[in-house]
User: Fold this.
Amino acid sequence: SVDPSVGGACAKVRFGSKAAEEEKEEEQASKVARVSKVASVKVAALDDEHEQCEAVLAKLAQQRNVAALQELHSVYEEHFAHEEALLDEHLYAAAKEATGFSADKGARTSHFGDHEALLNSIRKMIDDRAGVSATLASVSAAEVQKLASDFEKHATNYDGAYADRLSAAMAAAA
Assistant:
């Protein structure tokens, strides 16, 4: 029995910097990454895809393994390809060929570049865990939170910028 005057429980003793790192990882593991719902882009198919991305991010936050990370990469690839095709068809058709200044060409380049950056960050995480079973290789809570935050920032900064124009262009083409 532990004397209640000294806290009522045995202390956990750890030595060295490795122990401090392990303790920090345990603390992170007890936290679950927050996955926020992104605003509508006013195109039902893309809103559905954003919900699917959020669902897989939430799954990754719970499972925190490479299998869920690979699933996120796959869902992102499909979504980004579909979104880019719609944008090229309805908003950026002329921008692809534009010479000189074009706000749409700049928007297209930076938006599509951010898609690639998001995919590359996931690829790097997967590559860093190569050789370990996809269900055993872990992903830290901090890494999951960064992925969720990056997705939310992308949706707010890029996808939110095209919402009105793309939905209007698609309605006019229908």
Notes: The chain has a mean pLDDT of 87. Helices lie at 16-29, 44-63, 66-90, 103-128, 141-173.
